Amino acid sequence: MKSINVAILGFGTVGRGTFKVLLENEKLIEARCGFKVNVKKILDINPYAIKSSGLPKRMFTSNIKDILDDPSIQIVAEVMGGIEPASTYMLKALNAKKHVVSSNKAALAENISQLKEAAKKNKVELMYEASVCGAIPVLSAIKGNLAANKFTEIRGIVNGTSNYILTQMTENGMRYEAALALAQEHGFAEADPTADVEGIDAANKICLLADLAMGYYRKPSAIKRVGISGITDQDIKDAVEKDCKIKLIAKAKLGKNGIVLSVKPELIKKDDILYNVDYEFNGITLKTDCADDVFFYGRGAGSVPTGSAVSGDIISIAKIINAKPAEKSPAKKK
Ligand code: HSE
């Protein structure tokens, strides 16, 4: 069986989830993409992450050059989070003609145009399904079977942590701080949970969705956003009294004056499809001209669900590589 070598940048929640999925479903993945997917190197500087992984030390490096200069590594999975050095590493990997997969919405939303350009220039793939709504294949659907449609509105719950907090406050009367601590414990929250509770993470995701579906790009910092940190127990009670729930809603809407992107808490009524999207789950509705409304639902955060999406992109790239005719080695001179 042919094999394909992958490097994972970052062995945190998503890195470990990706490794687990690739290992546990190794045979099934091999059968589906025609390659044995082999994790050759992992970039991480955290000695605890390395020790607790139980993996051989030689698999780890703290020097990106060990990955960029290794011609046997064809796919780089960037799952380290943060804008830098992740963006620079992705650019360098693309320029070294390696395919890149990423779950890093912050880095992607900030630098998507530059990254897409580098992928195009170097004739390699850039895939980032895991960066938006965790395990839900919404980007693949936009690029794939919905590609014949014009998208007029994207509306959804795209941050698992804030949804988890709001659900715990609503359903179980939990205090905001306790619910956030639990979300962190479960590995849903970002390294700095400010990004989750202040709507920054949701803004990154709606930015990527609008770019892909509507061809409309705005820097995440230019998106109007309000988070959930100001929501009080009383606000939750008032919502319940009105037969509603408070949800953090991200939206991209095409109106008379063009496309508007926003993130803010909203009162969601019982008959709204997003009403029952609770805990770390995400839900997203796409309004289209031909397919009408399409709704996606699933786990928006968590180690293995996000690892599933990262692995899916790795498999898609392996299939593309497998479909390409093998490069002929130059005939040897006699
Ligand atoms: N912190 C993110 C969330 C992780 O809670 O949705 C998944 O992108």
Overview of this structure, please?
41% of the residues lie in helices and 23% in strands. α6 (105-121) links the parallel β5 and β6. It is globular, with a radius of gyration of 21 Å. The chain has 2 domains: 2-134 and 303-323, NAD(P)-binding Rossmann-like Domain (Rossmann fold); 139-299, Dihydrodipicolinate Reductase, domain 2 (2-Layer Sandwich). It has a 6-stranded parallel β-sheet, sandwiched between helices. A 6-stranded mixed β-sheet has the order 8-10-9-7-11-12. The two termini are 31 Å apart. It is of the alpha/beta class and 334 residues long. The longest helix has 21 residues, at 303-323. It binds L-homoserine. Residues 134, 159-161, 188-190, 196, 201, 300-301 line the site of L-homoserine.
Q: Mind telling me which CATH architecture of the largest domain this is?
A: 2-Layer Sandwich
If you consult CATH, what is the topology of the largest domain? Dihydrodipicolinate Reductase, domain 2
Strand order of the largest sheet: 3-2-1-4-5-6
Order of helices and strands: EHHEHEHEHEHEHEHHHHEHEEEEH
- What percentage of residues falls in helices of 4 or more residues? 40-55%
CATH superfamily caption of the largest domain: Dihydrodipicolinate Reductase, domain 2
How many structural domains are formed by the residues? 2
What ligand species are in this complex? L-homoserine
Mean pLDDT rating: 96
